[in-house]
Amino acid sequence: MKVISWKVGLLLVLFNIIIPKTKAQEMAILTKQEKSLAGISATTATGKLDLLKIQLIEGLDNGLTVNEIKETLTQLYAYCGFPRSLNAINTFSAVLADRKAKNIIDPEGEKNIQNTVEDKYEQGRKTLEQLTKTPQARPAPGFGEFAPRIDAFLKEHLFADIFASKVLDFRKRELVTISALAAMEGVESQLKSHISMGRNTGITDAELKELSIIIRKTVSTTQANTLLKSIDQPMLAVISPGMMIRISEIEIVPEHLEAYKAILKEEATASIAKEQGVIAIFPMLQKQHPSQVRIVEIYADKAAYEQHLQTPHFKEYKTSTLKMVKELKLIDMERLDQETMKSIFRKLE
């Protein structure tokens, strides 16, 4: 028996030497629950409530508990503000009510325990030391000396009261924070700081690259690139080779013009808000001939366009305007200046 065990052990050693691990085996990937936390955080931070609703439902279906999601949305107040946090919490409440009406019972999960530590500032300071693996002065140099109250709020509310809850561990909390910061513009410095903290909790660069895919899907390629740049990874092409550009030339029956304009406006707004693959739907009227409508349509690719045709809001637009359209002509276009396309409509902001 000992001889057999020895031979089996030798074979296992040789197997590991001769057949190395594949890249997929070496690369740790985010769990379904972690991906959902990332999607929920990104859409909360950007205020995309329609997309957030989808992410919340998917998160519950993927095994997140009610309290894990509540804790995520509560933590995010510190990064994207109370208005978006509260909007997200109200959206989540509506999702749960709808699921309950359908007899879907979601597990509550571990309950939050109130933080009763007397010196919360010191508790928060020590939490930051654990996350950053560097000493934390009291008060924090720079902003903490200039504005002591914000330093107190940061330590006592965020890194003490919120982080003390065991509903989410430190790794998940940093994943939530990184996802939110990656989704927002103008917070690159804070993003880099939390990427460093996230690495200290065990988040790998391979997982951060995977997170960039979620940011691209739920927010934009530009914001995904912000994350990739922060971890020294190659950028994604903002303008894809398969981008689809079209001009729709439409003549409307004059007596239906006002009704058509209202329906078109609603459809265009819904398409931009709900469909990541719809880059632009820009309707215009000819000044001299208002019944002549022109729509500039830009889709990420043909698949995004085909998906757009199947959405409820497009189907509603199509069926409700059939009698209003006198003539329709679809003209596919080719871009001349790819670089300039990156800044399209940006100056309107």
Describe this structure in words.
The protein is 58% helix and 10% strand. Helix 4 crosses helix 7. The chain has a four-stranded antiparallel beta sheet, covered by helices on one side. With 349 residues, it is of the alpha+beta class. The longest helix has 20 residues. The chain is built from 18 helices and four strands. Strand 2 and strand 3 form a beta hairpin.
Lay out the secondary structure.
Layout lengths: L1 H17 L4 H4 L5 H14 L3 H13 L4 H10 L1 H4 L1 H20 L18 H13 L10 H4 L1 H15 L7 H14 L4 H13 L4 H14 L2 H10 L13 E9 L4 H18 L3 E8 L6 E8 L2 H8 L2 H9 L4 E9 L4 H4 L8
Helix pairs in contact: 3-4, 3-11, 3-13, 4-7, 5-7, 8-10, 11-12, 13-14, 15-17
Gyration radius, rounded: 25 Å
C-alpha end-to-end distance: 76 Å
Which class of secondary structure composition applies to the elements?
alpha+beta
How would you spell out the order of helices and strands? Answer: HHHHHHHHHHHHHHEHEEHHEH
| Overall average residue pLDDT | 90
Helix content: 55-70%
Identify the overall geometry: elongated
Main sheet summary: 4 strands, antiparallel
Please work out how many helical segments DSSP would assign.
Answer: 18
Question: Proportion of β residues?
Answer: 5-15%
Name the poorly predicted regions: 10-26
Features:
single chain; 349 residues; alpha+beta; 4-stranded antiparallel β-sheet
Write a compact overview of the structure shown.
The chain has 349 residues and is α+β, with helices and mostly antiparallel strands.
